[in-house]
Specification:
The complex is a heterodimer of chains A (224) and B (434). Helix content of chain A is 47%, strand content 9%. Chain A has helices at 6-17, 26-37, 42-52, 56-63, 85-89, 92-103, 145-156, 183-216; strands at 77-82, 116-121, 132-135, 138-142. The termini of chain A are far apart. Chain B is of the alpha/beta class and 434 residues long. Chain B has 18 helices and ten strands. In chain B, helix 7 links the parallel strand 2 and strand 3. In chain B, helix 2 (32-38) packs across helix 10. The mean pLDDT of chain B is 95. The chains are: A alpha+beta (224), B alpha/beta (434). At the A-B interface, helix 2, helix 4, helix 5 and helix 8 of A face helix 7, strand 3, strand 7, strand 10 and helix 14 of B. The structure holds flavin mononucleotide, iron/sulfur cluster and FE2/S2 (inorganic) cluster. Flavin mononucleotide is lined by residues 56-60, 62, 64, 82, 84-87, 171, 173-175, 209-211, 214, 401-403 of chain B. Residues 171, 189, 346-350, 353-354, 399-401, 403-404 of chain B line the site of iron/sulfur cluster (SF4).
Chain lengths: 224, 434
């Protein structure tokens, strides 16, 4: 099942409505599909294409550009270990080697039980806690090998289910209903503002002209 | 003079555990600046920002006031806030987003009013799950509070704010790539000119793009006046700035310091900042402004944290990311890892960047792992020169965006400062630090 469920379809339409052009909702909708299915399935891409008015190939083409959009299955928990410069200095390569050994997979791989996908990540912007690890994009701090093993145990035993939702769920806060200002009202205000701006510009210009006339008037001898 | 008594401008609330809530925000003067701005003319608000001479905090350091005034002649259609923060070792914006989202929202509202924009987008790096939640929550609260949406505080001014998640691509921090991404496309930087999205931005409309930290400074500037901000710092570098300090220091973290009055040495060694190098070792080299910046050595530690001062010394403050490498660090490995980052993140549109980054990464890797040859050092420099002719600073550009010309920085720096180390790798058939 990878078409949007009714409740998800509702949220999808609300997302599209946020933007002046539907196409802008493409990436948010991909995240929504991943929230439903854990990864981006082919018919989800077709439905997204319909919703934003592009071809399925355009959705696939865009999605394939972005690291967070997965067009193949991902484990319940995506464990990302940063190996970029600050984390490298903080022992990231050693931690990644340890993770590969204990999980028995290489970066990009998923454990046989489908619980953990391992990722060798670029900077995760938490460089004062090294080596930086995230699970489903939630920071879990800089980890020692022992702490890493504990983390994996906890994940497998469901002990982190409260603070770390399954892969794909990015934001648990819903936008409230009041997000959009009334379009007609905004358009009217815009017109009024543009008019006020024009008036101010005209006044400024007239003022400048008056000043220039005074400057160049008889007796004003500012040569240069 | 390591620590000046400059006020904390963007981190004032961060001592509180609930700094991200509307209650805390309102209890500490929140949304007063917006009320004040709405009682002024948009021009007067923009004039305060101009007087502050606030330099953009996203990397290029272009004055925000000037960017806006280039646009005020033609009506601006969109305001887009850059919260993509992916430059390696940069971790300041997500702090502002997670710990003080209302300050960011208020800044965006003030900018929207000054620019008379009725639609603003905040583009957040997709991986910022917590930041997305906190910011969405803050927006909900701001709308309920009457601070955003229709007829803000009864002023007759309306603006819609939308939080937009990215999906994992460093290049989307480049402003034209960001706009493409916001249009639902691959993050391909656009061909310049136009050099600013000012004229042709989102959906082809005039658009202002500013960084999260730039926006977060606006409430303070409006409340205290542009001249109070300009009185801090020195020369063109006014106010305070966030520096993300990482690597071999005792207390890595994000610190707000007064510009120019503070030096790299202060930041690394002052007990309230870095607290010194780990293990009491020496600083071997440091990256002064994100991995696109050429490296500095210990002789540069006394340079002030000012945009022009650092620029004249041959590098940049860039994104405010300072990474310290101590005497135990292998410089080949460090430069190789940075090169690998660029090779992975090149969007692939330009040949020098796409091919060059891959080539350089492979040569760096083989030197680090014992397969290097003596002539590799010249080969590296030659390939770098092909990407950015002359290897000068600021770099020459042969590509659509400046990611390409940023690739040589670390390699060139490492060879310049530590050529012997490269040759030692070749001679010993591997890494002498391993
Ligand atoms: C490759 C590349 C990545 C960038 N990444 C970011 C980023 O993550 N955040 C940011 O604010 N600016 C980034 N920039 C700079 C933006 O293009 C732009 O200059 C900035 O957002 C303007 O905001 P400011 O004037 O307030 O600094 C990047 C630039 C390049 C070339
Ligand atoms: S320089 Fe590199 S990242 Fe920038 S547009 Fe060209 S290929 Fe893409
Ligand atoms: S370098 Fe690892 S999180 Fe930034």
């Amino acid at each position: 099942m990878s078409r949007f469920r009714p409740d998800m379809a509702e949220r999808a339409r609300a997302l599209v409505a946020l933007y002046p052009e539907p196409r802008s909702a493409l990436i948010p909708l991909c995240h929504l599909a991943q929230e439903q299915d854990g990864w981006l399935q082919p018919d989800a891409m077709e439905e997204i294409a319909e919703l934003v008015g592009v071809t399925p190939a355009e959705v696939r083409g865009t999605a394939s550009f972005y690291d967070m959009l997965h067009t193949g299955p991902v484990g319940r928990y995506l464990v990302s270990i940063c190996t970029n410069i600050a984390c490298l200095l903080g022992g990231a390569e050693e931690l990644l080697a340890h993770a590969q050994a204990t999980l028995g997979i290489r970066p990009g791989g998923t454990t046989a039980d489908g619980m953990v996908t391992l990722e060798d990540a670029e900077c995760l912007a938490d460089c004062d806690r090294t080596p930086c690890v995230t699970v489903n994009h939630r920071y879990v701090g800089g980890l020692t090998p022992q702490a890493f093993d504990q983390l994996v145990d906890d994940l497998r035993a469901g002990r982190r289910a409260d603070d770390i939702p399954p892969h794909g769920t990015l934001v648990r806060v819903r936008r409230n209903g009041g997000l959009r200002a009334d379009r007609g009202r905004v358009a009217a205000e815009r017109a009024a503002m543009a008019e006020a701006q024009a008036v101010r510009a005209r006044e400024a210009k007239e003022q400048a002209e008056r000043e220039a006339a005074l400057q160049s008037g008889p007796g004003a001898g500012s040569g240069s | 003079m390591a620590v000046t008594d400059a006020p904390r401008i963007v981190t004032a609330r961060m001592g509180h555990d609930d700094s991200f809530t509307l209650d805390r925000y309102l209890a500490t003067g929140g949304y007063d600046a917006l009320r004040k701005a709405l009682a002024m003319t948009p021009e007067a608000v923009a004039a305060e920002v101009d007087a502050a001479s606030l330099l953009g905090r996203g990397g290029a350091g272009f004055p925000a006031g000037r960017k806006w005034s280039m646009l005020r002649k033609a009506p601006v259609t969109y305001l887009v806030v850059n919260g993509d923060e992916s430059e390696p070792a940069t971790f300041k914006d997500h702090l502002l987003i997670e710990r003080d989202p209302h300050q960011l929202v208020e800044g965006v509202l003030i900018a929207a009013y000054a620019l008379q924009v009725t639609q603003a987008f905040i583009y957040l790096r997709g991986e910022f799950a917590l930041g997305l939640e906190r910011l969405t929550q803050a927006l909900n609260e701001a709308y309920d509070h009457g601070a955003a949406g229709a007829d803000i505080f009864g002023s007759g001014f309306s603006v819609d704010l939308v939080v937009h998640p990215g999906a994992g691509a460093y290049i989307c921090g480049e402003e034209t790539a960001l706009l493409e991404s916001l249009e639902g496309k691959r993050g391909f930087p656009r061909i310049k000119p136009p050099f600013f999205p000012a004229a042709v931005g989102l959906y082809g409309q005039p658009t202002v793009v500013n960084n999260v930290e730039t926006m977060s400074n606006l409430p303070w500037i409006i409340l205290n006046g542009g001249s109070a901000f300009a009185a801090l710092g020195d020369g063109r570098s006014t106010g305070t700035r966030l520096f993300a300090l990482s690597g071999h220091v005792r207390r890595p973290g994000t610190y707000e310091v007064e510009m120019v009055k503070t030096t790299f040495r202060d930041l690394v060694y002052a007990p309230v900042y870095g607290g010194g190098v780990t293990g009491d070792r020496e600083v071997k080299a440091f990256v002064p402004g994100g991995v696109s910046a050429p490296w500095f050595g210990p002789q540069h530690l006394d340079l002030p944290l000012g945009q022009d001062e650092v620029g004249q010394a041959g590098s940049m403050l860039g994104s405010g990311a300072i990474t310290v490498m101590d005497s135990s660090t292998c410089m080949v490995r460090a430069a190789w890892r940075i090169t690998k980052f660029f090779a992975r993140e090149s969007c692939g549109q330009c040949t020098p960047c796409r091919e060059g980054s891959g080539w350089l990464e492979r040569v760096m890797r083989r030197i680090e792992h014992g397969g290097g040859r003596e002539e590799d050092v010249e080969l590296l420099l030659d390939a770098c020169d092909n990407i950015s002719p002359g290897l000068q600073w600021p770099p020459q550009q042969t590509t659509i965006c400046v990611l390409g010309p940023s690739i040589p920085s670390s390699i060139h720096s490492a060879i310049d400062m530590f050529r012997d180390e490269f040759l030692l790798h070749v001679k010993e058939g591997g890494c002498p630090f391993a």
